[in-house]
Amino acid sequence: MVSKRRSLRIAVVGVLGAASLALAGTAMAATPATDTATPVVAQKAVPAKADITAKPSVSSVRAWQLFRVTGRTTGLKAGSKVTLQQKQHGKWVSLPASTNLSRDGSYSLGVKLGLKGKNDLRIVSGTTASPAFNVTVR
To answer: CB of 87 within 8 A of CB of 120?
Structure first.
């Protein structure tokens, strides 16, 4: 036998359950899903990907003849140090030739090489490196 009190309790629980489901559905419709929140985070100010270009003034020089390597950078701070690297025995080795970036991200570096033959070179700043380029020393 079902008493009045028990039937009232069942009715109240049923109404509260339906109300909470309705509110949960409304709350879910009002708040964006987790997947749509990700692009909002990605739209914050993201620093530009660092990039370095390098161009030698000549493709061939005599040993210890001065030439220049010039280029531009993006995503690096003005005043950052850029260094010339040479590939020796399959490894990139930093040479004692470096300069600081100008305000607009450009640089110009005077270089003298003594290792005769084809020299693979690149410019680096931290973990960012330019594409390799060649200068032949005769």
So the answer is: yes
